[in-house]
């Protein structure tokens, strides 16, 4: 974060809220450590995760304009973040062109991810959906040096994976077994190892952002 922006530090435990639905939000957050997710809860209790927040991500830039959260955001893991007052950020952006360009880059990247998630949910098979999700997470973590060779920490449960990909937990379990049998991944003890990245990308129809 630029020296021109003041902030305070925030620490959350798993399942604590960063924001609740339709709650006034005078500040945005930049994730420093840990994972969070945004979701939509239907009246019958079904949940659709609409975005994953990883280290380096901002949630949510739009609050600087409308000052209100549309959907709840909850920590998935222990979380460390910077709380940045919206008024302070807007003032800094008016004075710091480099910071402004960094923020725009984050907004463009978020828009690209959302488009890919819509396509994933609307047109892909279960195998393609999970393969794409793992490729995306790997690439996002790789850019911030949080992958270790071909593996990374995977805190998402099968229920989380189901709520991201629009599948049932049973279908996720079956698909993960299929991925192991195909020699694409290994998943154990909260670590995911991508065994065959070229093939996983091929199955996922994955195209890295900007290529």
From TrEMBL:
One of the record's GO molecular function terms: DNA binding
SUPFAM superfamilies: cAMP-binding domain-like (SSF51206), Winged helix' DNA-binding domain (SSF46785)
CDD domains: CAP_ED
Signal as UniProt keyword: no
BP GO annotations: regulation of DNA-templated transcription
Transmembrane segments: none
InterPro entries per the UniProt record, alphabetical: cNMP-bd_dom (IPR000595), cNMP-bd_dom_sf (IPR018490), HTH_CRP (IPR012318), RmlC-like_jellyroll (IPR014710), WH-like_DNA-bd_sf (IPR036388), WH_DNA-bd_sf (IPR036390)
Keyword Transcription assigned: yes
Keywords carried by this UniProt record: DNA-binding, Transcription, Transcription regulation
Sequence ranges assigned to domain HTH crp-type in this UniProt record: 124-198
The protein's name in its UniProt record: Crp/Fnr family transcriptional regulator
């Amino acid at each position: 974060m630029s020296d021109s922006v003041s902030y305070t530090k925030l620490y959350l435990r798993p399942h604590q809220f960063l924001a609740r639905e339709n709650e006034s939000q005078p500040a945005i957050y930049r994730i420093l450590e840990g994972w969070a997710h945004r979701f939509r809860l239907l009246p019958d209790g079904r949940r659709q995760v609409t975005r994953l927040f990883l280290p380096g991500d901002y949630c949510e830039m739009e609050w600087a304009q409308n000052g209100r959260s549309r959907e709840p955001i909850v920590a998935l893991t222990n979380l460390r973040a910077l709380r940045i007052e919206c008024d302070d950020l807007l003032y800094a952006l008016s004075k710091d062109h480099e910071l402004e360009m960094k923020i725009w880059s984050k907004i463009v990247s978020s828009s690209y991810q959302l488009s890919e998630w819509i396509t994933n949910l609307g047109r892909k098979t279960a195998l393609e959906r999970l393969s794409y999700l793992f490729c995306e997470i790997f690439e996002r973590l790789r850019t911030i040096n949080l992958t270790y060779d071909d593996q990374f920490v995977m805190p998402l449960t099968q229920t989380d994976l189901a709520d991201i990909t629009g599948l049932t937990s049973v279908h996720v379990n079956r698909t993960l077994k299929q991925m192991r049998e195909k020699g694409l991944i290994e998943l154990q003890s909260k670590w995911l190892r991508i065994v065959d990245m070229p093939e996983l990308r091929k199955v996922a129809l994955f195209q890295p952002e900007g290529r």
